[in-house]
Specification:
The chain is α+β, with helices and mostly antiparallel strands and 388 residues long. Helices cover 11% and strands 24% of the residues. Strands 1, 2, 5, 6, 7, 8, 9, 10 and 11 form a 9-stranded mixed beta sheet that branches. A 7-stranded mixed beta sheet has the order 3-12-18-17-13-14-4, covered by helices on one side. Strands 15-16-19 form a 3-stranded antiparallel beta sheet, with no helix packed on it. It is globular.
């Protein structure tokens, strides 16, 4: 069973032409037309609706419909979800909330010369971004639980990681997502399979979500374009070939709007640095996700190893990490190296997803490898934001 079906920054020199690049789709999910602000997102995603959300269903096989698992009933006290728009190819981004428990996912593509070092066995920020700075926090300094390698433990979360909430059909769903440094200071990273679907809408990111404190840093809506499509960047091949055959592209970047006070997400919570071209074998990775049954997120520290699939229907090599307790909901959760306890940020080298959308069991997770295609996908997202 796929992980999602289990219930319970950049340099100023980077200049790319506006719009999507060849072989890339600027979003594959559709939102209802009109504005989608932080205040509207907060009014829609009430604490009750967020608590009732379930993990995003796995993507369908290309050419088939999307069989979503029955969602939990949406509380009647929350506003009724808007009727889904007509199904047409489109985009999908995200907005903020507060901490919860683990999930999984990742993807990429693009083409145009860019001033970025070639992929190598050493971590290379793509593009180079300034070191993260400490941001004011409404919560006590995060404490990463201490446990034996590979043992996941619930904790109160860190500001740069949170839940990504989406509506699909009449159901309220979520995945895990994290802030990644970018020139616009408004980029969020998750798994591609979390944001696919022509009926995906009302997308919002909530940093450090927990059921007890659902919006400690506010909410950040995934923006929409003039046609009402969410601003999400997913490799076009992932959409056309599907989650199995294109598992190495299970990554998505989304542009989020400012919070209710007009602040960009990176200015509010900080951001991780995107690293591509690194090794598969990291000696120490912090894995964070929002598990479906838990009211808080989960953290685990362990090494990663290289996993190469022998299944011709889902080829490729992936990062693999053994960490207990990462069921549905953790998809999109970041693999963080060089975590700095002072800034609560680090380098992100993967997201839960990829092979079998994160893996068939809750105790071993996978990620697409962040190589040249993921770097190009990120650069396309940055160029798309600048083209506005």
């Amino acid at each position: 069973m796929l992980r999602t079906f289990t219930l319970a920054a950049a340099t100023a020199a980077l200049l790319l032409p506006g719009g999507p690049l060849p072989g890339l789709e600027t979003g594959t999910a559709e939102a209802s037309a009109g504005h989608w602000t932080a205040r509207e997102a907060a009014a829609f995603w009430t604490p009750e609706r967020m608590a009732a959300a379930v993990p995003v269903p796995g993507p369908p096989t290309p050419g088939t419909s999307t069989p979503a698992p029955a969602p939990a009933p949406v509380p009647t006290s929350a506003p009724a979800p808007a009727a889904p728009p007509a199904a047409v190819p489109s985009a999908a981004p995200s907005a903020p909330a507060a901490p919860a428990e683990p999930a999984a996912s990742a993807a990429a593509a693009s083409a145009v010369p860019v001033p970025v070092p070639a992929a190598s066995t050493l971590p290379a920020p793509v593009p180079a971004v300034p070191a993260p700075t400490t941001v004011p926090s409404p919560l006590p300094a995060p404490v990463i639980p201490s446990a034996a390698p590979g043992v996941g433990q619930d904790f109160d979360g860190i500001p740069v990681v949170g839940r990504m909430f989406v509506m699909k059909g009449a159901g309220a769903y979520f995945c895990t997502a994290s802030v990644v440094s970018s020139p616009g200071r408004n980029m969020v990273l998750s798994a591609a399979h979390c944001l696919l679907g022509s009926d995906t809408r009302q997308v919002a990111f909530v940093p450090q979500y927990t059921r007890a404190n659902p919006r400690p840093y506010g909410m950040f809506p995934v923006l929409r374009d003039a046609a009402g499509k969410s601003k999400v960047w997913i490799a076009s091949r992932y959409r056309t070939e599907g989650a199995a055959k294109a598992a190495t592209l299970d990554v998505a970047f989304a542009q989020v709007g400012p919070d209710a006070d007009g602040e960009d997400v990176e200015d509010v919570v900080g951001a991780n640095r995107l690293v591509t071209g690194a090794t598969f074998n990291h000696p120490k990775v912090l894995l964070i996700g929002h598990p479906a049954p838990s009211p808080r997120p989960r953290a685990c520290v362990n090494k990663t190893t290289k996993f190469t699939s022998t299944d011709p229907g889902s080829p490729g090599s992936f990062l693999r990490i053994d960490c207990t307790g990462y069921p549905g909901g953790t998809s999109g959760g970041p693999f963080i190296t060089r975590f700095d306890e002072d800034t609560s940020t680090g380098d992100v080298v993967g997201v839960i997803g990829g092979w079998e959308t994160g893996g068939p069991t809750a105790d071993t997770s996978y990620s697409a490898y962040f190589g040249a295609e993921i770097r190009k996908l990120y650069q396309s997202a940055v160029a798309g934001v600048r083209a506005e």
